[in-house]
Write a structure and sequence with these properties.
It contains ten helices and 14 strands. By secondary structure, the protein is an alpha+beta fold.
Length: 332
């Protein structure tokens, strides 16, 4: 469907990923808008505010990437770092069932925060960002990595696509709390996030130029790597995406269609069926029991407290209790 006028706008369309295509620029991408689903995910985690912002960015980024998959399965974005936030995990059962969690050192978070704010680069420090795809039908598993070097998730995503996929890519992420109305009409703070990814995918791969990366053992006086000229269409598209402001990604009165029209109205933009996104943990008593039943009896006995083994899901917080002497038979 071409986005042409106000009648194409879907006001208040949250928790979805909207694919789009700009044919004259050979650009394809998606816009993610997260409202109640993200608010529910962040509400159940007792995390400092800057960490919730970072986790929201990770959820938005993972949603942009997971909704591009053609096969059903699982997409996992995981960051392990030496920074104040040592672990970020977003687990998406495709097409759009999301769960997420984070681990942090509160004292270190406070140390890099100012007025309750901190950059994602300061929170992450150095480490690794891994992206894992588990295809449901074929059972194949693919994994890509990119180093985190005191940079934002946006910058890390750009580095990943430049180094691993070699696809010219622009990513924008934004997270914030806004004043909202609850079901009873009461004023409340609610979390929202938005994300946009645009990629240059021309019919002719020869139009894609990739910047040479410097070799790790190059001498200091070596000539700088060759800077290839980028395609004019991608230069234009990237410049347009770079104009997107955070407020445009999180404002509930600016649906994805309106944002895309603002960006690409001179070129024309087409949108396709959106993928719904939802807060849904996939933990279950049966799955946890299956894991516990693989453990030696001695470990089960040591894990028992007051006659039962308690297992808490780190994603949704739900607790399951099992009888160590009769797993699968006499659950408590």
């Amino acid at each position: 469907m071409s986005v042409q006028d106000q009648s194409d706008f879907i006001a208040g369309a949250d928790d979805r990923a909207l694919p789009f295509q700009v044919d004259p620029l050979d650009v394809r991408g998606r816009v993610v808008t997260l409202g109640p689903a993200l608010d529910a995910i962040l509400a159940r985690h007792d995390l400092p505010r800057p960490v919730k912002v970072l986790l929201g960015e990770a959820v938005a980024l993972a949603s942009l990437l997971a909704t591009s998959l053609k096969d059903t399965g699982r997409f996992i974005l995981q960051a392990e770092t030496d920074g104040p936030v040592s672990l970020l995990v977003v687990d998406i059962r495709t097409p759009g069932q999301i769960r997420a969690t984070a681990t942090c050192n509160r004292e270190r978070v406070e140390g890099v925060s100012e007025a309750g704010r901190a950059s994602s680069a300061d929170l992450l420090g150095s480490g690794t960002l891994a992206m894992t795809i588990e295809q449901g039908r074929s059972g194949h598993r693919y994994q890509g990595y990119v180093k985190l070097q005191h940079e934002s998730l946006e910058a890390a995503a750009h580095a990943y696509f430049r180094q691993s996929e070699q696809i010219p890519t622009r990513v924008r992420l934004a997270v914030a709390e806004i004043l909202d109305r609850g079901e009873a009409g009461e004023a409340r703070q609610a979390w929202r996030a938005g994300g946009l990814i645009a990629q240059f995918l021309p019919d002719s791969p020869d139009r894609i130029t990739v910047r040479d990366l410097p070799p790790g053992d190059a001498p200091e006086d070596a000539e700088p790597p060759h800077e290839a000229e980028e395609d004019d269409a991608w230069v234009e598209a990237a410049a347009l995406v770079d104009t997107v402001e955070d407020v445009e990604l999180i404002d509930p009165s600016v649906p994805a269609e309106r944002l895309l029209l603002r960006l690409f109205h001179e070129r024309g933009v087409r949108v396709f069926d959106a993928t719904p996104l939802e807060d849904r943990c996939t933990c279950s008593r049966q799955r946890i029991a299956a894991v516990l039943e693989q453990l030696p009896a001695e470990e089960l006995t040591e894990a028992a407290e007051s006659g039962a083994i308690a297992v808490r899901c780190e994603f949704c917080g739900k607790e399951y209790r099992f009888d160590p002497d009769g797993l699968g038979k006499n659950d408590v």
